[in-house]
Amino acid sequence: MDASLTLIVIMAVLFACGVYAMMERSLTRVLIGFLLLGNATNLLLLIVMGMPGKAPFYDEEGAVSDPLPQALTLTAIVITFAVSAFLLALIYRSWQLGQADTVEDDEEDIALRERTDAEDELFDDESTSDEEDAPTDFVGVVTSPITVLHMRDHPAIHDDAPVDVADGYSASDDDGEDRT
Asked: Is residue 15 part of a domain?
């Protein structure tokens, strides 16, 4: 596959500019960054597609083009359009409510920013040694969060379906009825 170096550089620049624009607090810049990322994704799929060939029809001979990148490009276009419309609605509503499209800090953000490193270390030291010895795998443990019961283990359900005797289960249950 021979990809043009120019297309690869343009794609990388679009990705970099899109990520940089999305890190701003202005919703308009976030929208522009998202549009740049969407176009960079479409360009990436165009690069991945490779050399164009004939349409993949039945009994077509020769080099046929792969239809998957084309389908993914159409899907990426639709997703970009939908999210862009949603972001435009958010920007419009933000402008109606506050005459600005910037995202402001709330009380939790300010409190989190003002927290010192000593408080962070205090939160980290609160873990006990019991938590370190706790098992991470619940398989075979009595205190497992999920218990799997078979229908024959449940006392309220009486099933008349035949049961295989080969799995170690007897053919009669507690009340003496034969279920085979």
From this structure: yes
